[in-house]
Design brief:
alpha+beta; Arc Repressor Mutant, subunit A; 3-stranded antiparallel β-sheet; 5 helices; globular
């Protein structure tokens, strides 16, 4: 049985989420949060990005539902809302590896 086609509304929601992932710095932040919680300072250290940049990207990632945050005293901790988001990156890496292998065959 073929999957049901997605509605225009569903496609728009999906596109919005992919837009949030279309920034390399955001992917770097998500990767830095793999398997752990981190404060903004820890994310800065892990990524080498600037504070204003990280804060802006965390805001987008939070609004898009990719990260969650919790306050503990004066600190805010960020974590992946769902680690499955990193599976998207892994799928794309696999795709890129296959494309590179196919191109190598052509030029070998």
């Amino acid at each position: 049985m073929a999957p049901k086609p997605l509605s225009a509304e569903q496609l728009a929601l999906i596109a919005e989420r992919f837009k949030a992932l279309a920034e390399p710095s955001r992917l770097e932040i998500l990767s830095a949060l793999r398997g752990r919680e981190a404060t903004v300072s820890e994310i800065l250290e892990a990524t080498g990005l600037g504070q204003a940049n990280v804060s802006k990207h965390l805001q987008v990632l939070h609004a898009s539902g990719f990260v969650e945050r919790r306050k503990d005293g004066v600190s805010t901790y960020y974590r992946l809302a769902d680690p499955d988001v990193l599976k998207l990156c892994e799928l794309m890496c696999g795709r890129l590896e296959r494309e590179i292998a196919a191109r190598r065959k052509v030029f070998s």
